[in-house]
Sequence to fold (110 residues):
Amino acid sequence: MPQRERYLFVCTNRRPDDHPKGSCGHRGADEVLRELKGELARRGLAEAQARACASGCLDQCASGVAVLVEPDHFFYGHVTPADVPAIVDALASGGRVASLVLSDADLAKG
Fold:
């Protein structure tokens, strides 16, 4: 299978319920990942354009659910299942969902 154009790494890390940072896993990461995989497949983008993959901690706990888009090397933050269609639209057109892209200040919060 050829390498895809983009990979979306969805943080699915889970920390203990009482951890002060929280975790993407407790904020719905599994559902976001499932929706991304399904939407990419439905639109015929999963074979060559993009793949959604589970990831361990991406160090963006304050902005979870976090999704790292490579090779473009930017993060989406606070992603919900409702955001998935817009994310896939942006992938298909080569753009980004500006309202979800984490700023340098967001990234510094970790």
In short: The chain has a mean pLDDT of 93. The chain has one domain: 6-109. The radius of gyration is 13 Å.
